[in-house]
Amino acid sequence: MFCCTSAQLCARVTDGVVQGMTVDEAIAHVTERKVLQPVLLCIDGQYFVKLDSTAMYIHEPSCFADCVEYLFKIFHVFNVHYPAELDLVFKLLESILSVSRTTSSRILSDFIISIS
């Protein structure tokens, strides 16, 4: 069974806090580590979601949970498998929110509305 502290969970979800790097340097850093799934990047207090070679800025999140929600929705919208380390966490969120992979169209519309 996988368990970790909240700090370890935060580090796994964000792929660590990247200080003093530009967005392009952070994307290159994560790509070098062969991270394929979407991942949160924290760069000098600003949050981004890395998708392939692009970083989407999360505009004014009220808390870290907003960033995790954003990441969670991206996994569903693009129908991407969760990273093994976070599989149980995201499956727990699915259970709490009564969301399954078959509800992706509703999540997609909510996601598009939230980023517009």
Folded structure, characterized:
The protein is of the alpha+beta class. The chain has a 4-stranded mixed β-sheet with strand order 1-2-3-4, sandwiched between helices. The protein has one domain (6-115). Helix 2 links the parallel strand 1 and strand 2. Residues 1-6 have low confidence and may be disordered. The longest helix is centred in the middle third of the chain and has 14 residues, at 64-77. The N and C termini lie far apart (39 Å). The protein is built from 5 helices and 4 strands.
List keywords for this structure.
single chain; 116 residues; alpha+beta; 4 strands
Number of strands: 4
Poorly predicted sequence stretches spanning 5 or more consecutive residues: 1-6
Quick one: overall form?
globular
Largest sheet: 4 strands, mixed
The figure for the number of domains is 1
The Cα radius of gyration reads 14 Å
Beta-strand proportion: 5-15%
N-to-C order of helices and strands? HEHEEEHHH
Separation of the first and last Cα atoms: 39 Å
What oligomerization state is this entry in? single chain
Average the pLDDT over all residues and give the rounded result.
75
Structural class: alpha+beta
Number of helices: 5
How are the strands of the biggest sheet laid out side by side?
Answer: 1-2-3-4
